[in-house]
Amino acid sequence: MRANDLETIGNSFTGSYSYTLDAKGRINIPAKMRKALNPANDRTFMATRGADPCIVLYPVEVWQQIAAKLLSLNKRRALHRHYTRNIARYAEALQYDHQGRIALPAGLIDYAGIGKNVKIVGMIDHIEIWEPERLEESDNQYADQLDDLDTISDEIFSLPL
After folding, report:
1. pTM for the whole thing?
2. DSSP letters along the chain, please?
């Protein structure tokens, strides 16, 4: 394994953590995830609605790639405009403080159905913030699709290393 390979692995968001939302709508970003954030992002994530009922935090450098793809959509097509609008209008830059806390927007908290407890899940290039019961429901939704999950697993783990 080369040094660059180890650097890429070290800069990914992995793991699952249980935290609580404080009275000001803040959560603590796990230290492991803060360390994985490239310093070029200046402690900043772009937060928006996830495709699932969760909040998604993208490093600024990943968000810039997403924004470029959104900008490449045909603005004359109503569905393209609608899709871009529904990603961009809920997006907000959030910077964690020196204690590692990030203040989540109330609209995103409501969308994700978050109360006091949260699950913070690493998704390699971004982070998801879930209400724990909704995450469990999402996991259970795929429990009867083991064959499909095996097919995906075969595709991933049969790749040449």
Report:
1. 0.87
2. --HHHHHHHHTSB--EEEEE--TTSEEEPPHHHHHHS-GGGTTEEEEEE-SSSSEEEEEHHHHHHHHHHHHHS-TTSHHHHHHHHHHHTT-EEEE--TTSEEEPPHHHHHHHT--SEEEEEE-BSSEEEE-HHHHHHHHHHTTT-HHHHHHHHHHHHTS--
